[in-house]
Amino acid sequence: MSFFKRVGALTCALVAGTLLTTQSTTAHAEALTFTDIAGREVTLPEMPDKIILGEGRMMYGIAPLIEGNPFKKIVGWKSDLVQYDPDAFRKYQGAFPEETARMIDFGNPYAGDFSIEAVLEADTDLVLLDVGNLFKAEETGLVEKLGNAGVQVAFIDFRRNATENAVPSMLILGRIFGEEKRAAEFIDFYIAQMRKVTNIVDTIPAEDRPLVVVENAAGWQDDFCCWSFGPYNYGRFVELAGGKNYASTLANAYSVDLSLEGIIEADPDVVFGTGANWKEARPEVTSTLLGYEGDPEVNAERLAALAARPGFADLRAVKDGRFHSIYHQFYNSPYHFIAIQVLAKWLHPDDFEDLDPEATFQELHDRFLPYETSGQFWITLNR
Amino acid sequence: MSDSSLVSGEALSLVRAYKLRNVRRAALIGIAFLLLAALVVIDVTTGPANLSIWRTIEVIFDRSLATPKEDVIIWQLRMPVAIMAIAVGAMLGVAGAEMQTILNNPLADPFTLGLSSAAGFGAALAIVLGWSVIPGVGGLFVSVNAFVFAMLTSCALFLFTRLRGVSPEAMILVGIAMLFTFNALLAFLQYGASEIQLAQLIFWQLGSLARATWPKVGVCFVILALILPWFMYRSWALTALRMGEDKAAALGVNVGLLRISVLAGVSLLSAVAVSFVGAIAFVGLVGPHIARMIVGEDQRGFLPLSALCGALILSGTSIASKAITPGIVYPIGMITSLIGIPFFILLILSQRKRHWQ
Q1: What is the reported pTM?
Q2: Taking CB atoms and an 8 Å limit, are B191 and A263 in contact across chains?
Q3: Phi and psi for A309 in degrees, rounded to 5?
Q4: Do residues A322 and A345 lie in contact, with contact meaning Cβ atoms separated by under 8 Å?
Q5: What are the chain B neighbours of A308 within 8 Å (beta carbons)?
Q6: Of B41, B48, B64, B133, which is most buried with the most CB atoms under 10 A?
Q7: Where do runs of H (alpha helix) occur along B245-331?
Q8: pLDDT tens-digit profile of B217-244?
Q9: pLDDT tens, position by position, A15-67
């Protein structure tokens, strides 16, 4: 953990350093040099015009940086946004129908269907990849092959060490798109919203921090419980929001498979799962369908069904009405400060009485996003 | 006169030896059975929740005594897993034993013949592409896909045996070809899977008892109850087959028919087991070898003991998987191999005679 923190801090310093040193030169020459989240120095001969996204969900980070059309410089992406967050995709589609229609689906960068020839065919300047797949990208020779073909690769991260890497990732994106000012504005907003929680959590003593069980993608499989996060991603969000993440006490891993009996015995104070509109790609899911088209009535029913699963029904957290569900995709986006604010209210309702995540979410959309908010992004079991 | 008394004396000692062997075999099976019962008790009484042994046994015998929490933990979480471990272990043990017998090859088992890989590919189709082979089966479609693919593969093996002049060796090679084909197809799907799908796929492939439910346990026991007695009924023919195809034929065994009908039963056993708990290597291969080292080739001892050895291995693994880190579910497929193989090698090294003739 501390290793990752150190790496995160180092990356911050490196990014900040390169920003300072290259600022003056880039103003004249169009060349662009920066250090990405993997610690690689990336040099582009000129500002990139044609960018491919290794994940469609990178749009969560790009959209707030660009006033007007965020797709202007993007030629293609992987279809994960279309498949696993169709609500958000339709928001982009509504705002920029022609742009979303022309986007090329390059498939999975780490799979055989990602054609490097097609990347070259599209005259690509830069491919953005997720740092969680650094090993895979190097192993499959993707980085090398693209490099040989003169296509630069840069790694960003909103998932693996989301909270450490969100700010440097936004800085990198700001540089790539030539939107440093907007990036700084977004980061200001991000830090202010994170501080609203962490400033208060810092004063909460360890013994007052509730035990929390996170169920990753609750209802993705109806016959197995429970995937959870170790001290990463949502596991980390829980810690930042003033809770003790149960899976982190068992293993220091990104993903942990919990036994239901262990959860019953641990008797957590709060239990929450993540959900998104997976129904279109996977009709059999029983998860909550949170997102821009989330229907409170449907989600209430689905959450009640999740709470009624054998073993869950008798949990203290369920009986006390501390059983919740939250939008899964916060786990792979710089908007995770919304999740942390929601969690803070769930974990410490008295301390965060005045905190209003709804308003934060509204402000995010008003100030940074090209579409209006709608739907439902979190829900609490109604008892 | 003295001649006949000599003969009767010899016959008597033969009969005595035969009876002794029978008694010894029954005793060994009895011991294995007791051992299994002990393991099941340990399995049901261990877990992250600290319930005392006596309380657990009390609740098992009188469910009405249980608090809601105890009821969930013992009756819905621990018992199905513990009993599923026995059922699946026995199914894989029997399947491996009879595959080795009919193919006359010590390496035959549902895993090495590609049935598990085929099932894994079927499951991956469901997990990654959301594709159901048989529409309208609802949430069970991962298991159903796995089952269908395992059955299709054994049908392919089955058809292969119908070809003229195909030897058991050739069948093994075809099985291994299947194994690699399905592994390659599986890798292809894995390559394009999202991270959630990948987690689900890997978990499935490594095998887990965590998704055991009472209905699944029921299905397993029904299949066992249908096939095991029938195999027992054919045990003399199967024993004869192990002495050689020609000798078995000379003894009046229809070798071709026997081979095909046993293959059908074995396919059903392994396909159901694999589709419920995922691909668990080792049990089907090693369980029968341990049984063979203990009782030899006679099917009357070998078959039940293979079932018991399989059940013992999986039951022990179920306990071990809980003991590593309480609260975390470890896939048992990796534990069977990790814990089982050193033990197996030790057994082989300690055997002075060849255990596979």
Answers
A1: 0.84
A2: no
A3: -60, 145
A4: no
A5: none
A6: B48
A7: 245-250, 255-277, 283-295, 299-324
A8: 999 999 999 999 999 999 999 999 888 8
A9: 555 555 444 444 445 789 999 999 999 999 999 999 999 999 999 999 999 99
